[in-house]
Amino acid sequence: MNCQDVETWLLDEARDGADVAAEARAHLADCPACAARLRAERQLTGALRAVAAHDAEAIAPARVEAALVAAFRAQAAQAAPAPVVSSAPAAASPIAFTQRRTLAAFTARRALAALAVAAALVLLLVAALRLQTAPHGAPAAPQQANANVATPQQVNPGTPAPQQANANVTAPTSAPAAVGNDAARPVRAASDRAQAATLAQVQGRGAAARARRLVASSTRAPAPVELGAMVVRASAVEPERVTDFVPLVAGSAAPLVSGQLVRVELPRSALAPLGLPLDPARAGDTIKADVLVGDDGLARAIRFVR
Amino acid sequence: MSDEELWRRARGGDEHAFTVLYGRRQGPVFRFAWQMSGSAAVAEDVTQEVFLALLSAAERFDPARGPLASYLYGVARNCVLRRLEKERAFVALPGADEAGAGEDVTLAAPDDPLLDLTRRETVEAVRQAVLTLPVHYREVVVLCELHELSYAEAAETLACAVGTVRSRLARARALLCLRLRALRAAPAEPEAKRCFA
Q1: Chain A environment of B177 (Cβ under 8 Å)
Q2: What burial class does residue B14 get, using C-beta atoms within 10 Å of its C-beta: 0-12 exposed, 13-18 middle, 19+ buried?
Q3: What is the rounded distance in angstroms from the CA atom of residue A243 to the CA atom of residue A180?
Q4: Which residues of A touch B105 (CB under 8 A)?
Q5: Is the pTM of this model over 0.80?
Q6: Distances (CA, A) of A152 to A140, A149, A173, A290
Q7: Looking at CA atoms only, how far is residue B129 from chain A in angstroms?
Q8: Contact B107 A3 (CB under 8 A)
Q9: Does residue A7 contact residue B105 with C-beta atoms inside 8 Å?
């Protein structure tokens, strides 16, 4: 037996203490190199076992289990049939409390939502600043802002353009961005036209009347709001008074299937770009608002809370 | 109750079965990731990823193809390799560029590589030496030596032949002896060379 032959069992002998064949034993007695190697392998085995014993009690921190159990419960809850309901920010994903990167799929969605909200806020602020710097009596800024979210031909092709724009804000149409408490019910062309006409009249009386209507509508019993394929229901026990949702994206956006309602606080000046009345004396105050953020990260609509 | 039975119950929504299964298997998964990466934070992430994968894609585990333990090791291995691949762009592992180095290892009789080291020093020295091994050697050392898997179990986890495991282990051990001698010669150097920031 030569060194190469001995090598085939040397590893097992060093690891498991396998019986040394007589021939191999004879070779080891005659070959100092193989004998030294066997000693080194045995030393290494002992050292590796020391590491294994040293590490034997190492386990993952308890927070990992907590996060996984929360994920398990969330998955179990998803498995149960439930209506698609967007809720207040408190109803965030149950595993969102963990900041581990392994939950990137969950946190990325939340980050996207936060980014979208931030973008919406910036847009609102910029529009508000533009309005404040525009000359008095020039309604172009707010109307332009609303025109950006309107699809006039879907509401009432015969209505003059500026009125169409605002009418589309609350008219119940099948457009994905069409948002409003009245929009919860199935689309009915006749009632759509009637409501659009009503809105046009309301708009003719000015922004204050429009705002009164918006706020007044929120005092009714909460009705579901249809947003594309998604239905949003206000909490029945919610004591707050809220306006209708005001769309923030164009009608060509993808239908909203699901999303989150994010509560934010805005300067009151953010009301102006949306065509709502603003008391200049209170422009520096803040107002609460709920921003509806779709799963695609787009801020779809906003409503104000009193 | 077997792992597979716990897994079946957990799939059916039994939270207790899931927690029992987690309690039973998280330690090996965590230690495997830790010993492969040298980072407890990475090991924590990997452990979470592995069990999240078991939750979200439970159908990927087929009991007919092997035990759950091997499946979990396999998922953990993939997670660790992804991490190592990502982080290699930032910090080069000492010895990571030694692809095939094991093939050139001479099997001449080495001196005792652990001479004069205390037990604690030995543990640290061996841990560091394992971390400097190329990944395909490191994983067989971790599985066969530190987790005491059989060649067949390691081969199942690594999706390779038993002979491959055996030959890699022999070369890995030879490399370890060399590294340990190098560490003994310059004990202060190697620790700062891994970074998982």
Answers
A1: 40-41, 44
A2: middle
A3: 9
A4: none
A5: no
A6: 17, 9, 11, 25
A7: 11
A8: yes
A9: no
Lowest mean pLDDT among A6-10, A148-152, B65-69, B88-92: A148-152
Q: Across-strand partners of A293? A: A260, A299
B35 contacts in chain A (CB < 8 Å) = 55
Residue of A nearest to B145 (CA): A48
Answer whether residue A255 shows pLDDT above 60: yes
Residue A81's CB: how many other CB atoms inside 10 A?
5
Q: Which amino acid is at A201?
A: Q
Neighbours of B56 (CB within 10 A): 12
Partner-chain contact A11 B169, CB within 8 Å: yes
A94 vs B39 pLDDT, higher one: B39
The Cα angle at residue B94 between residues A55 and B114, in degrees rounded to 5: 50
Number of A to B CB contacts under 8 A, please give it: 127
Token representation of residue A145: 């802002």
Q: ∠ at Cα B119 (B115, B121), nearest 5°?
A: 75
CA atoms within 13 A on the CB side of A286: 7
The predicted structure's pLDDT at residue B94: 53
Nearest CA in chain B to A35: B109
Which residues in chain B have Cβ-Cβ distances shorter than 8 Å to A56?
A: 31
For β-strands A246-247 and A299-305, DSSP reports them as antiparallel
The pair of structure tokens assigned to A5 is: 């032959």
User: Which of A34, A49, A72 lies closest to B15 in CB terms?
Assistant: A72
Say whether B107 and A7 touch across the interface (CB within 8 A): yes
